[in-house]
Amino acid sequence: MNAQVNARPINSIDARPESHPGAGRSSAKGTLYGRRKGKRLTARHESLIAKVLPAVAVDVSQPIDRAALFEAPVAALWLEIGFGSGEHLAALARAHPAAGFIGCEAFHNGVAKALALIEEGGLKNVRLYEGDARAVIEALPDGALDGVYLLYPDPWPKRRQRKRRFLSDEILQRLARVMRPGAELRFATDIDDNAGWTLARILRSRHFSWTPATARDWREPWQGWSGTRYETKALREQRKPAYFTFLRNDAPLQDAPLESASAAVPCERPAL
Ligand SMILES: C[S@@+](CC[C@H](N)C(=O)[O-])C[C@H]1O[C@@H](n2cnc3c(N)ncnc32)[C@H](O)[C@@H]1O
């Protein structure tokens, strides 16, 4: 288990891809938008940050070794980007004890809440990263992931703020490197404009396919779905979420110009 937390400021991250020429040449240096801290932590949360976080933290200062992440080898490895307070991450970990989960969250108070769930549930199959998920993606080896959740990412609704959205052509290329063929990218949003934005990028990516059989595929959540805090708020405010499942196809990274049509290549489905 890696016990070191990388404390570099997030906007100093330079996550240039070295091992995969097709994954894009530009730097992933990026600013992390949004809140990092909220209300003062309770004594219990402070104690969890001090005592439990070091034991479950993912070290991104070196390549992540999937085999060494957990006490025992895991049958599958999933990443949740922006887990908020961690309720979905903890529910997944409870439901799939043979799988391993890495959760990334930039909001300190959310990390503290997730630690409480990990401790209360005695969850041994969760690792956390406090900071920009892009750092974890860059530290993962090729094809390491069986799936990724990006649930209700910040929508940045104003036109001038849209470039802040997490999902971009570049992120898709970077995710494509670390997701094995057949891995799923599960994306939920309650903001129509963000749904359209995301689909446009998926459809021009050669690495991901979206092939819904019926409207139920995106109107209804995944099997075993436990919900998230943002989803509860969205439903309360009468917004209808969309649940997209994008499949990492077999397209090799080196043949991947940024703007080309999506190729639907059949491949094995992940286990969750
Ligand atoms: C709108 S909230 C949704 C939280 C949760 N997924 C839910 O559905 O309740 C988006 C979350 O993503 C986190 N976030 C945004 N950009 C991030 C990044 N680059 N890396 C890690 N977390 C990020 C934010 O801190 C925030 O907690």
Topology (elements, then pairings):
Elements: H1 43-51, H2 53-56, H3 66-69, E1 77-81, H4 87-95, E2 100-105, H5 108-121, E3 126-130, H6 133-139, E4 145-151, H7 169-178, E5 179-189, H8 192-203, E6 208-209, H9 216-219, H10 229-236, E7 242-248
The protein binds S-adenosylmethionine.
Can you tag this structure with a few keywords?
binds S-adenosylmethionine; single chain; 272 residues; 16% strand; Rossmann fold; alpha/beta; 7-stranded mixed β-sheet; 30% helix
CATH evolutionary superfamily: Vaccinia Virus protein VP39
Provide the CATH top-level class: Alpha Beta
Using the CA coordinates, give the radius of gyration: 18 Å
By CATH, the architecture is named: 3-Layer(aba) Sandwich
What is the percent of helical residues? 25-40%
* Tally of DSSP β-strands: 7
> Order of strands across the widest beta sheet?
3-2-1-4-5-7-6
Q: Determine the strand fraction and express it as a percent band.
A: 15-25%
* pLDDT < 50 runs, ≥5 residues: 1-28, 258-266
Q: Gap between N and C termini, in Å?
A: 24 Å
Classify the secondary structure makeup into a structural class.
alpha/beta
CATH topology: Rossmann fold
Task: Give the biggest beta sheet.
Answer: 7 strands, mixed
Ligand roster: S-adenosylmethionine
What number is the mean pLDDT?
A: 86
Number of helices, counting only DSSP H or I runs of 4 residues or more: 10
- Overall, the morphology is globular
Order of helices and strands: HHHEHEHEHEHEHEHHE
Number of domains: 1
